[in-house]
Amino acid sequence: MRKDILHLRAPGNWINDPNGFIYYKGRYHLFYQYFPYAPVWGTMHWGHAVSDDLVHWEHLGIALFPTKAYDQNGVFSGSAVEKDGRLYLYYSAVRYLEVDDENIHVACENHFETSQAMIMSEDGYHFDNWKDKRKIIPVIRDRENGDATHTRDPKVWKDGEYYYMVLGSTYEEQTGRVLFFRSHDGTEWEYVNQCRSEQFGRILECPDLFAIDGRHVFVGSPMYVEGGGIQYPHHAKCGLVDYDASSCTMRLAEEMCLVDYGMDLYAPQTNIDRDGRRVMIAWMRMPKAVEEPGEKPWNGIMCLPRVVEVEDGHIFFRVHPEADRCFTREFFGNVSEFRKAGGKMPYRLKTTLEEGQRLDIGGYFLWVEDGTLKADRSRVYTGDEEGPVISRTPKTGDRCELDIFVDANLIETFVNGGQYVMSHIVYGLGDYVDGLVEHVYAYTACRETV
Ligand code: FRU
Questions:
Q1: At which of 279, 306, 322 does a domain end?
Q2: 387 Cβ partners below 8 Å, 6+ apart?
Q3: Same domain? 318 vs 371
C-alpha cells in the first residue's frame, strides 16, 4: 500500500475529514472519510492509515464500511478512544430515505437520517463490520433535543469517571448547536445538555472540546456562517469557552476565530500525542482531483499535524516537533538553485517579511499589507474562479516571521510561531521563489519509515 510523507493524502479517489485520530498501543492511527470508487464524495467508508511519528503514513485500506440498515448509506465522521486496551470507534450512521436515481451515493434533497454508532476492535487493525458494530444513539426525532438528519460527528473523550460525547447539530436548520452526551462505560449514553449559537452557523459539524492548561477550547466547523468577513461559508473555527463538566454547560467566551486563514481547511480533529501535547489534524478541501502519470486520480489531503496551545488568551497552532525535525538540513543558496540541484518538495522556507515586501513561491504570492499577511493563489489554482482570491490573517503585531512548508499541492504558512496559520491548496507550482528568503530546508527522513 502507498506511503505518504508529511501530508496524508487520498490513496486514489476521494477523502475528506480525519476520523478516529488516536495514539494507540504505540502508534498513531488516523482514519478518514473515504469514497473508494471515484475522486468525488459518495457513500462514506473509513479509510485507515498508521504512523510512528505523524510524518510517515502507511495506508492500510478500508477499516469501516456500511453493513447495517442504519449505516447502509454511509459511515460518517467520528472519533476514537482506548478502553481496557481495546479501540472504540464512534461514528455517525447514515440511512437515506430517498436516493438519487442517477447516483445512489447521494440522497435526494438531504432526505436522510442519522443515528450514532460504534465499533470495537481488539487491536486497532481488525474490524468486524458485521459483528462488532452497535447503534448507541437512535435517530433524534425530538426537535428540542436534536435533528433527525443533521446530527453527527461524535467526538468522545474520558474525563474522571465519565465518557463525554459532543455531536454537531442544528436547530431547525437555522442555528448550529452542540449536543452533549455522557456515559459510564462508553456504550450506554444519556443526553445531558446542548449549546446553541449564531456563531455555529446554521449547521455545526465536527465539534471538538478539550482543556489546555485549565482553559477550555472549542473547535468546530459551522456551515453557512453569515457575515463575519470570512471567505467561504463553511469554515473551521475555534474559541475559548467556559465549560462546566458536571452539567455539560458550555458558553462561548469570545468571538470564535478561524483555525486557519486560508480557504481550504475544514473538519479538524484533535487528540493527545505520544508526549501529551494536544495535536490537531484537518482536511484540506480540493476543487479537483490531481492526476499524475502512473497514479490513480486523488482528491483530498490532510494538513500538517499542528500543536494547539493557549498563550495569553490566544489559541496558537504550532508546527508539530515531529514535522519540525524533518526539516533541519539547511540548503545554503536560494530555492531555484535548490530545485536545480535536485531538491524536491516538500521543502521549508523561513523568512521575515516587512510591510510591502512580497514573496512569490512559484506563482503563489505572500505579502504584508496594513500589518496583515496576505496571500494570492489565483495563478496556481483552478477552483471557483468566482470566489475571492486573496486571503488575509488578522494583524500580526510588529513582526511577521514566516515558516512556510511547500508541498506539491499544499502550502502552509505559520506566522509568528503559530499565532496564525494560512494554508492553501495549489496546483502546478513553479520551481522558483522570488523575494527574500532567509533559510531553505530540505526534507530529511529522520526516522525509519513505517
Ligand atoms: C464534514 C462532514 C461531516 C460528515 C462527513 C461526511 O466535512 O460533512 O459532518 O460526517 O463530512 O463525509
A1: 322
A2: 231, 232, 263
A3: no
Q: Among the atoms of ligand 1, which is closest to the Cα of residue 17? A: 7
State whether the beta carbon of 236 lies less than 6 angstroms from ligand 1. no
- What is the average per-residue pLDDT within 320-347? 89
The dihedral sign for the CA sequence 156, 162, 166, 167: positive
Q: Which of 17, 147, 208, 376 is catalytic?
A: 17
**Rounded mean pLDDT, 204-225:** 96
Ligand 1 proximity of 43 Cβ (cutoff 6 Å): no
State the residue range of the domain holding 350.
Answer: 326-442
**Cell numbers found for residue 169:** 447539530
Cβ–ligand 1 contact at 169 (below 6 Å): no
Instruction: Say yes or no: 140 and 267 in one domain.
Output: yes
Q: Is 79 in the pocket of ligand 1 (CB under 6 A)?
A: no
| Cα–Cα distance for residue pair 381/212, rounded to 1 Å | 37
- Inter-CA distances, 25 with 29, 81, 85, 169, Å: 10, 12, 8, 32
Q: Which atom of ligand 1 is nearest to the CA of 78?
A: 10
- Domain of 135, CATH number, reads 2.115.10.20
Dist CA 399 CA 372 (whole Å): 10
Which residue lies with its CA nearest to atom 6 of ligand 1?
76
Longest dimension (CA), the chain: 64
Q: Judge contact between 222 and 174, C-beta under 8 A.
A: no
The half-sphere exposure of 371 on its side-chain side, counting CA atoms within 13 A, is 5
Question: Side chain identity at 55, as an amino acid letter?
Answer: V
Residue with cell 464524495: 41
What band does 446 get if pLDDT is binned at 50, 70 and 90? low
208 carries an active-site annotation: no
Q: Separation of 76 CA from ligand 1 center, angstroms?
A: 6
The verdict on the CB of residue 33 being under 6 Å from ligand 1 is yes
294 & 340 share domain = no
Looking at this protein, which amino acid is placed at residue 103? N
> What distance in angstroms lies between residue 365's CA and the mean position of ligand 1's atoms?
31
Q: Which atom of ligand 1 is nearest to the CA of 44?
A: 12
For 388, the grid coordinates are 475571492
Q: Please, how many CA atoms are within 13 Å of residue 298, restricted to the half-sphere of its CB?
A: 20
Predicted confidence band at 234 (pLDDT cuts at 50, 70, 90)? confident
44 CA → ligand 1 middle, Å: 9
Ligand 1: does its nearest atom lie under 6 Å from the Cβ of 318?
A: no
Give the global pTM. Answer: 0.96
pLDDT at 230: 54
